[in-house]
């Protein structure tokens, strides 16, 4: 387990397309994760709650990014305890291609395998085989290789 910090900012009156840029800046500064959730503010205004998970030493830097790059006028932050599964980024061979996936273990057992989207997307575009088929094939290959 580890202690991280969660930052939250309510954002309205901002073009939602700009969120992708804000996300990229936040991640480039070293945040562990960033996400947004839809919300309704007073007077029925639709908005987003921007949430960031980070190490304590990044709080000031990331608050600066949020305040400069969004329409938010304040940021809440608080410590959170996180338990993260052991993760391994690996490569599996599928139909003559090397594709990446993430294998997650909890208590020594495989609990999740995720195919790398960009690899599967490229394979789908090059072969005409549906993206979901590539994702399934990667997961099946990884389960054969890593599941106990």
TrEMBL record:
Keyword DNA damage: no
GO MF annotation: an example: lyase activity
Leader sequence residues: none
Name of protein: Nickel insertion protein
Keywords for this protein: Lyase, Nickel
Enzyme class: lyase
The organism's place on the tree of life at top rank: Bacteria
Species this chain originates from: Megasphaera intestinihominis
Keyword Lyase: yes
The protein's Enzyme Commission number: 4.99.1.12
